Model the fold of this input.
Amino acid sequence: MRILLTGASGHIGSVLTARLHDEHSIRGVDLRPPEGSVREAIGSDFIVGDCADPALAARAVEGVEAVVHLAGIATETDLPAILNTHVETTAALLDAMVNHRVNRMVYASSNHAVGMTPRCELLGIGVPPRPDTFYGVGKVAAEGLLSLYADRHGISSVAMRIGSFLEQPQTRRGLSTWLSYDDCTRMVRASLTADIEGVATIYGISNNTDAWWDLMPGRALGYHPQDDAATFASEIPPRPEDDIEGARVGGPLATSAFRLPPFGEAR
Ligand SMILES: NC(=O)c1ccc[n+]([C@@H]2O[C@H](COP(=O)([O-])OP(=O)(O)OC[C@H]3O[C@@H](n4cnc5c(N)ncnc54)[C@H](O)[C@@H]3O)[C@@H](O)[C@H]2O)c1
Done:
């Protein structure tokens, strides 16, 4: 399949390009030029620029069969920047997809879309949006766009609410929220080809023994994670902040100690 990978120079993007380029033909787009393994995997089919720019989005989407949208500031920042980086990029790409008849978006959403939800035994995907930050608000709004473009234009999407994408888990919370490199690749691979109508929302975590979030929606799409954060449990010493970080889905970003940037900071 010919795919567009936005945010290809980033952490997740570089892992995915290295692992998917043998089976898919990948075009990359990013604000930053590709380096090392990404440049080797993608070659010259790379566009440096802002995918919130409709003209760039149109050029990037032309000729592909699916879009894996990872581009965006992967942490909290001021609201105007969040709206640009998560909402405007998603809208520009979806619009370009309508014009070029591209029917599948695989979107890197986040657990922070529901981050203020109190932790429970096993969180399903039916809980209402409950963002913990402006970052989470951006992900909720981007998920809303997926729904709008599914209903208006028939674009099917997977909203992957990713937990903690790391080489290995680093905190006690990570024992529940970890997503390994290989499982992320499995999830995107399944999401590209799954039979979906509308928007499928899934939690992007590995097959963790201590998982807080339900993997069934992902399994229904053919995502069968193989790794388990419990393998690393003995290497992760307890910390005083573990309890408070484990109280809500969003962990440290959902605590009262985490301060939002003032709304007007960037103006
Ligand atoms: N890493 C995680 O654990 C995690 C968890 C949940 C969700 N996510 C989401 O996954 C996506 C990728 O995360 P990551 O960890 O690889 O982040 P990253 O910061 O390593 O990579 C993001 C890339 O997007 C690019 N980018 C940002 N805005 C852009 C724009 N307007 N146009 C083009 N390129 C742009 C950046 O230059 C960067 O290379 C993000 O949307 C993030 O919110 C990540």
User: Anything to note?
Assistant: Residues 6-7, 9-13, 29-32, 50-52, 70-74, 85, 89, 108, 110, 162, 164-165 surround nicotinamide-adenine-dinucleotide (CB under 6 Å). The CA atoms of residues 82 and 138 lie 6 Å apart. The beta strands are 2-6, 25-30, 46-48, 66-69, 104-110, 156-162, 164-165, 178-179, 199-204. The chain has nine helices and nine strands.
